[in-house]
Amino acid sequence: MSLLLPDRRRFLAAGSALSMGAVLTGNAAAQTAPAAAASAAPKPPGRMTFHGIDTFHGATIGTLHVDVARFEGGAYKVIKSFDTVPGGRSDGPVFEAATFQPGRYELTLYVAKYFASLDTKLPTPTFYSQVPLRFGIADAAERYHIAVLFGPWSYSYYRGT
Questions:
Q1: What is the pTM of this model?
Q2: Residue 56 CB-density burial (10 A; 0-12 exposed, 13-18 middle, 19+ buried)
Q3: Residue ranges of the domains in the chain?
């Protein structure tokens, strides 16, 4: 067994050397690439998109109505409303470029109306009828994808990209 150790060590050393060579070659190539070319590429405009995912049915098979409000003058004011397309997504960006501003927002999802339109058997009154989601936009030059998982008794949401 001791005869195998030197061979194994040489093998590991050779593998490490080859790996390091690949890393160094990649780093050298990255350093020689002109930085101007990277900065010259146009940055896509900031935008916000939406995706509501029905966890009760396993897919968003109906139309979900959503109101978008922005916090202005001490209160949330509805500035836009939309219905999702099949699959639960907004039909394109909710906001993009100049229409997308930093600030505090609230999305209101009309989940009871959604489940009623599908004839989903739920108790009356439903556990909740509307779901308000509040979040902040710090940099309107970035992309925000608001993803919501919802069912008749629970919901969660997060920022995707």
A1: 0.72
A2: middle
A3: 4-40, 47-160
Q: Which residues contact 55 (CB under 8 A, 6 or more apart)?
A: 149, 150, 151, 154
The whole-angstrom distance between residue 61's C-alpha and the CA centroid of its chain comes to 20
Please, which pLDDT band fits residue 42 given cuts at 50, 70 and 90? confident
Where does residue 72 rank: exposed (0-12), middle (13-18), buried (19+ CB within 10 A)? Answer: exposed
Does 21 or 53 have the greater pLDDT score? 53
- With respect to CATH, is domain 47-160 assigned 2.60.40.180? yes
Residues 66-78: pLDDT tens digits?
Answer: 999 999 999 999 9
Q: How far, in Å, CA of 123 to CA of 131, rounded?
A: 17
Which helix (DSSP H) or strand (DSSP E) does residue 70 occupy?
A: strand 65-72
Tally the residues of the chain.
161
